[in-house]
Amino acid sequence: MGKLIFYDKEHEYELNGEIVPSVSELSRFASREIYGDVNQYILDNAAERGTKVHKQCELLDKYRECEADEITAPYIQAYVNFIKDNRPEWVAIEKAMASNKMLFAGTLDRVGMLNGKRVIVDIKTSSAVQKVLAQIQLNAYKMLWEENHTDEPIEELYILHLTKEGKYKLINFDIDNTLFMACYNLHQALKKKKRKRRNDNE
User: Fold this and answer.
1) Which residues contact 71 (CB under 8 A, 6 or more apart)?
2) How far apart are alpha carbons 194 and 190 in whole angstroms?
3) What's this model's pTM, rounded to 2 decimal places?
4) How far apart (Å, rounded) are the C-alpha atoms in residues 142 and 125?
């Protein structure tokens, strides 16, 4: 994989000394269409809540305990219920990974065995799961994992949707990287176009 550094504050990945796009950045073509009209205050609050829940779930998986506040407690209870009901065996938790071939990176929420199959699970706390974005992200994570673990292919992809009512839903997604590759190719085309324009102005 090379030397990968994640800068949390900037949410940037550096691979072998070069900043590479994240899965979130590559999927911006879809996310702008989906969230373009949503109030930024709502988006920021949702993002902050999601970050807290992710960190608390990580502590729960690693140390079997965490401190939830009034806002995050229902989501954590939903995650606890999922663990009790399904008993997954995680082999990777909040694992940052990169592709040396395609030069992008991302953080996989969970990878492990679930119902006898090797799976990727991405945790969501939004009011609704945006299926197009989920399809893009999960298949990008699958590509990252399999480039770095060639003998451990992913068999299934899931979104684990945690709700403010303390419930969860495990949603299966197709293994199909068509949408992700469309985003990736758009990013590459625009990147080259910008580079060419900058050179023309020199």
Assistant:
1) 49, 52
2) 6
3) 0.90
4) 21
